[in-house]
Amino acid sequence: MRILGIETSCDETGIAIYDDQLGLLSHQLYSQVAVHADYGGVVPELASRDHVRKTIPLIKEALAAANCTKDDIDAIAFTAGPGLVGALLVGSCIGRSLAFAWDKPAIAVHHMEGHLLAPMLEENKPEFPFLALLVSGGHTLMVQVDNIGEYTVLGESIDDAAGEAFDKTAKLLGLDYPGGPRLAKMAENGVEGRFVFPRPMTNKPGLDFSFSGLKTAAAITIAKEGDDAQTQADIARAFQDAVIDTIAIKCKRALKQTGLKRLVVAGGVSANTSLREQLAILMKNNGGEAFYPRNEFCTDNGAMIAYAGMQRLKAGQFEPLAIKAKPRWPL
Ligand code: KG4
Ligand code: ZN
């Protein structure tokens, strides 16, 4: 069976074709970063318009790259939420309309399910059950994954998502959007321990996160210490260390609570090298293993949506629905 996956929930248009026997046949990604750069963040209307321009040409390219025609496609999966409603509607309308025209099933995929299954596209993939830490621009979730569709949310951010905190702090440091990877680069030159920011919500029980205070800690430090290049790098380092430490403490707690030995880390922030290193050490010390998607599948992409759609298709878990876009949708 072969599936076409369409991702348009935010600022990347991702299209992929996945075959349940052969794996990923092709994937295309168009990033709108340049479109939004002047505005310091994603402008929803511009995002929708760009998805309108790019989705169909990318579908044609993905089909050609996989040496497929529409007749080789058994179903169409599209991200139905959560995300920006206008952007979601583009993928949803195109996906549902193609499914209608081609007379194939359409599968509405949850964006975060796509992220948490993304490591399944790799050779070294985890077996069920596992613990998943999803750290993206819109969400921070700790999830117990028992099987496809069997997800228990153990904790989440009560304010900013991890990626959002990276982006907001990066903005304070004068870095362009998207600031997360730029802040990480800046932190490489930072001196460890010159500034120490809090590890929020680690001194009380539970698996929820709170990252908005770290941005405030950075703002106060900038106001007090100035913003010469070294100070900026030291603040970036203090911020990143605080986020990573906090995440590691919560992961350790969740592993203990659930008795799980496999940790999946996915979502845009999982591209962060220091986070990967620290969590790999944590898992090694716990006699377990950490699993990540390859870097290009950490951030939004069509491959993870095609994969998640295939699992839903095989399990018969999809609704023959009309166009569906759910900007807010619990996992
Ligand atoms: O998963 P994603 O592409 O989009 C959402 O679904 O939100 O995640 C994007 C987020 C952005 O906040 C971006 O700054 C962050 O992931 N990000 C990083 C890194 N690469 C991307 N944050 C920290 N370090 C990185 N290397
Ligand atoms: Zn995402």
Could you explain the architecture of this structure?
Its EC number is 2.3.1.234. Belongs to the KAE1 / TsaD family. This is tRNA N6-adenosine threonylcarbamoyltransferase. Keywords: Acyltransferase, Cytoplasm, Iron, Metal-binding, Transferase, tRNA processing. This protein is α/β, with parallel strands linked by helices. The protein has 2 domains: 2-116 and 297-314, 2-Layer Sandwich (Nucleotidyltransferase, domain 5), CATH 3.30.420; 127-292, 2-Layer Sandwich (Nucleotidyltransferase, domain 5). The chain is built from 10 helices and 10 strands. The chain has helices at 33-36, 44-65, 85-102, 111-117, 162-172, 179-187, 212-225, 229-258, 273-285, 302-314, and strands spanning 2-7, 12-19, 23-31, 75-81, 106-110, 130-135, 140-147, 150-156, 262-266, 289-291. A 5-stranded mixed β-sheet has the order 3-2-1-4-5, with helices on both faces. The chain has a 5-stranded mixed β-sheet with strand order 8-7-6-9-10, with helices on both faces. A hairpin with a 2-residue loop joins strand 7 (140-147) and strand 8. Helix 5 (162-172) runs antiparallel to helix 8. The radius of gyration is 20 Å and the shape is globular. The model has no long low-confidence stretch (mean pLDDT 95). 5'-O-[(R)-(carboxyoxy)(hydroxy)phosphoryl]adenosine is lined by residues 10, 136-138, 163, 166-167, 178-181, 184, 267-269, 271-272, 299-300.
